[in-house]
Predict the structure.
Amino acid sequence: MAWAHIARPVDVTVRDLDLPGTVPADSAVRRKILVLGGSSEIGVAIAHRLAQEDPVEALLLGRDYRRMAAVVDELKSTGRAIAEIDALDADEVETHADTIACAFDRLEQVDLVILCVGVLGARSGLDADPSEVTEVLRTNFLGCGSLLWHTLRALRAQGHGTVVVLSSVAAERARASNPVYGASKAGLDALAQGLADAVAGTNVRVLVIRPGFVSTRMTAGLKPAPLTTSPQAVADAMVAALDRRTRTVWVPSALRYVSAVLRHLPGPVYRRLPL
């Protein structure tokens, strides 16, 4: 399922649903973050990790209001964060311009955007259900690509900011075991890298994160791969990368070298690997 199937992504708020709400604002200087995919375990881990570094004001956009409301309470309990939630439908690309504009208006300025929308499906390759294939491609590439494009335009207009794009090591070279997911992430990754070039030399930055297998709800029931990592490890790597000028981060870092080898293997050899 895509991150949201809500018809009016910017009109429904946590207050409308009578869920646990917003922490009262104070006068502290806070890093303002926008999380696209606000119920993602990786996105939540990043928000918590950022709150350990500096006070934050977060706006979480996603489809799971109950889970996001719980995240708001978790962030509030740290005493270092205030947060709100709202709806986002990654598949309704025609709403993205307004959704991003409203989010930037609510935060007044945005220091950091975390794009962690994504679905995992169509693992049967040619035998996958056609609707799953379409969903994975539409959400992971078309939906995420649209959100990334609108986000970067908004950051350029305000004159500064960073967008973190959650890609995957699967983007490096599609695998026969899950070619649709790999292709969708490869498309998003290529778009992010190209847009990073487009904003080079400005105060706007694109940081691409390529984790390997991450133990989350999305991967529950799947056999863990070598070098399996966690949402917390991804968050730690991202925060560390913010202090450097790097554009691409592998998690764990050893995947950089593994991927370099796999990328250049001859096709007949690559196809025999248990990937």
Remarks:
- Confidence is low (pLDDT under 50) at residues 1-27.
- The first helix runs from residue 41 to 53.
- Residues 31-272 form a domain with the Rossmann fold fold (CATH 3.40.50.720).
